[in-house]
Amino acid sequence: MSDPATTEDRALDLFVHALKMCHGYDFSDYARASLKRRAEQLAADLGEPGIGHLIPRLIYEPSLLGDVIARLSVPVSDMFRDPEVFAVLRERVLPVLASYPRVNIWQAGCAQGEEVYSTAILAEEAGLLPRSRFYATDINDQALARASEGIFAARRVDGFATNYDRAGGRHDFADYYRSRYDLIRMRRTLRERVVFAHHNLVTDGVFAETHLIMCRNVLIYFSQALKERVLRLFADSLVRGGYLVLGTRETLQFSALAPYFEVVSEPHRIYRLKRERSIHRV
Ligand SMILES: C[S@@+](CC[C@H](N)C(=O)[O-])C[C@H]1O[C@@H](n2cnc3c(N)ncnc32)[C@H](O)[C@@H]1O
């Protein structure tokens, strides 16, 4: 009798292959254990006894794709998540960005938009919102649709406000949204600065002339090889002197790209592309 763990591993390989062949999404370089857990959960949620049973559904039910991507992609986030990171951005990064006539900020893996609205609030408080353009991207179209509405459950507001205060917020967090019943909606002045777009870090290209890239808690789901590809993409997208912010469990330290960046704050995973070295020599 074959080992069920091995069977599920083979099923996962075939599932990943089917997803790529049928729909063009390539999860083959995602960290294996967490991808397997999410695929198992997806199978259970769809009433299937195992990952392999998802394969015919991927083939014959194309309408399932949105749900499949949504379930595989973990769109968990928070406003001012890790507030101390936003406090350092406020103190050390935004004042530098304020010296540019225009600022492009790329929020890669934006989930439902919590982080991009947080960064837009920082820009507002640094006086550079009208000169800023935010590009917030993700592979999860369901999350992107929610993000672009800027709507969140009102029960989350206390947590948002606490994080905002810890991040050195200069106003009342309530200044940035309107309440409607059990929902809040972020103010139009913030929403209209953000372009939400589908972009896959595995397969898609650069966003040129970016001054700040925030990509937090996304690389943890990738293999080492894929992390390197994505870091290279970021280096190619940044202007010289542009900033890169990773999640607190992600680092540039052991990457081949590390020599091209200076460390602004390692504990907060904030890096800056050096001005003097050409990235194309990597
Ligand atoms: C845990 S959330 C992180 C959200 C936010 N950056 C934060 O730190 O709170 C990870 C996000 O990465 C997105 N993601 C996963 N793979 C991706 C890819 N290949 N390209 C773009 N986004 C991806 C997921 O859809 C998800 O919304």
Automatic annotation (TrEMBL):
**Which PANTHER family does the UniProt record give?**
CHEMOTAXIS PROTEIN, CHEMOTAXIS PROTEIN METHYLTRANSFERASE
Mind listing the UniProt keywords for this protein, alphabetically? Methyltransferase, Transferase
Q: Which GO terms describe its molecular function?
A: S-adenosylmethionine-dependent methyltransferase activity
> A Pfam family matched by this chain, by name?
CheR
Q: Where is the CheR-type methyltransferase domain?
A: 1-276
Query: What stretches pass through the bilayer?
Result: none
Keyword Transferase belongs to the record: yes
Q: Name one GO biological process term.
A: methylation
Q: Which InterPro entries match?
A: Bact_Chemotaxis_MeTrfase (IPR050903), CheR_C (IPR022642), CheR_MeTrfase (IPR000780), SAM-dependent_MTases_sf (IPR029063)
List, alphabetically, the SUPFAM superfamilies matched. Answer: S-adenosyl-L-methionine-dependent methyltransferases
The organism named in the record is: Salinisphaera hydrothermalis (strain C41B8)
Task: Reply yes or no: does the keyword Phosphoprotein apply.
Answer: no
Q: Which domain of life is it from?
A: Bacteria
Q: What is this protein called?
A: Methylase of chemotaxis methyl-accepting protein
